[in-house]
Amino acid sequence: MTTTKKIASFIAETDFTLPAKEREVVKRVFLDCIGTTLAGYTHEMGKIITNFVKESGSSPRATVIGAGFKTSPADAALANGTMAHALDYDDYNLVLCGHPSVSLVPAILALGEERGISGEKALEAYIKGYEVEFKLGDALNLRHYELGWHATCTLGTMGAAAAAAVILGLDVETTRIALGIAASEAGGLRQNFGTMTKPLHAGLSAKNGVTAALLAAKGFTADKNIFEAEYGFCNLFCGKEQYDIKTLTNNLGKPYAVLQPGISIKPYPSCGGTHTALDGILDLVKINNIKPDDVLEIKVNCSDLLPRVLIHSSPKSGLEGKFSMEYCMAMGLLDRKAGLEQFTDEKATDPITIQTVKKVKIKTRPLNDNKTDVFVEVTIKLNNGTELSTQVDTAKGNPDAPLSREELTAKFKDCARLVLPEDNADRIIAIMDDLENIQDIRKLTKLLIP
Fold first, then answer.
1. CB within 10 Å: which end of the chain, N or C, has fewer?
2. Residue 305: pLDDT band with limits 50, 70, 90
3. Beta strands of 290-415 (E only): which ranges?
């Protein structure tokens, strides 16, 4: 059996009885993604993308979250995926080198609303979609990422196609075709980090997955061995002999990747590569009551991968600041927090911010063999010569240091309140707590508009 057929068989034929632990993980990330989508609607790019899909005039079948109208499932997935990633506040996985939920949740909600799927089916679609994109990440990264591809779009497109195939109930052969179509839709360049096009990658991956599955269901054709073929996904996105094809199908769902290694939920609306350092500087500043004027220099010791991800050392906008270790350290010192209000154009162009950014120095070490070397050491050198240091091994929000339920729901409400009445937010939380027992996902989607 070919690699693509094995994956398609996993998607189409695996009996789905989800253990409690995996179910709870998916419900958490699902809720978190809805929250970041609502917050993303308030951003300028949220307004642009919702107006764009509204102008398409598609028949109203799927909710554009926060916007108060419906459109086609593909266009709703495009808008919602873009908004979900607009603030870079959504979840991530280091092996994937990307953000899983912004591809999966918008695709599942948009297509699922049209089809009236159950909450259990939504959970199944997420689990299987994530499994596919995680396995691709495990096989192709870091090579794939270092070539300049944004895995959220490239690998996320494949995951979204798998999730959409579950919702549509495609058989093995049709699922193979859906994956073949999706492979030709995948793209996304890391050079666009710090611009509106990075969040657009998430929207495109969600839309691509929906489109691929719908076309396959209608009889469209594509190569059925798209992962292993000579000019297929893996060779073109990674390079021949740069990956192990067996990794794609080893231990599919044993255990499900949502549980091991899991998914990180962000406490800060910036690139996940900044989070260990943010934890460190916030602890140092608060515990030692450090004032900005007392600081001569801030030093960050990290793996040499991070500067290749955090490409804006002198950011000119709030978006660029999300991909700047220097900026995040400046905000930790100046504001003692890193929330939505810290990543604005006004903050980025403030002369005090610019001056503080210049105090930050980055020292790197070679990335270790496990490819998830994220520990950092943060040192603050004061004007009087005193140096205060801390090492952070695991960022808060990581599966090994998860957000508490209180922290998760507080983050969701903080995002939701920007768009929805408080009682809507409370009802959404209640539905997500009981998602596996919801018979029609439209019970949830009807709450996602003002």
1. N
2. confident
3. 295-303, 360-365, 376-382, 387-392
Same domain? For 152 and 243 the reply is yes
Q: Encode 1-62 in three state secondary structure.
A: CCHHHHHHHHHHHCCCCCCHHHHHHHHHHHHHHHHHHHHHHCCHHHHHHHHHHHHCCCCCCE
Helix, strand, or coil here: 69? strand
Tokens 């009807």 -> residue: 446
In a domain, 402, yes or no: no
CATH number at residue 62: 1.10.4100.10
User: In whole angstroms, what is the distance from residue 214 CA to residue 168 CA?
Assistant: 8
Q: Where residue 347 sits, what CATH number does that domain have?
A: 3.30.1330.120
- Joined together, the tokens standing for residue 295 give 């600081």
Dihedral angle sign, alpha carbons of residues 88, 92, 98, 100? negative
Domain span at 356: 272-392
Name residue, tokens 């996904």: 233
Residue 400 within any structural domain of the chain: no
The span from the CA of 241 to the CA of 303, in Å, is 26
For residue range 101-135, list pLDDT tens digits in order: 999 999 999 999 999 999 999 999 999 999 999 99
Residue 225 vs residues 68, 200, 222, 237, 347: alpha-carbon distances, Å: 41, 28, 9, 15, 49
Q: Two tokens at 276?
A: 């260990």
Q: How far apart are the first and last CA of the chain?
A: 49
For 27-81, what is each residue's pLDDT tens digit?
999 999 999 999 999 999 999 999 999 999 889 999 999 999 999 999 999 999 9
Contact 78/204 with Cβ under 8 angstroms? yes
Q: What CA–CA distances, in Å, run from 65 to 36, 111, 171?
A: 11, 14, 30
Radius of gyration for the alpha carbons in the chain, expressed in angstroms and rounded: 21
Both 315 and 249 in one domain: the answer is: no
Q: 193 and 67: one domain?
A: yes
Structure tokens at 131: 């499994």
This prediction's pTM: 0.94
In the chain, the number of structural domains is 2
- The two three-digit tokens of residue 267, written as one number: 């406490």
On whether the CB atoms of residues 269 and 89 are closer than 8 A, the answer is: yes
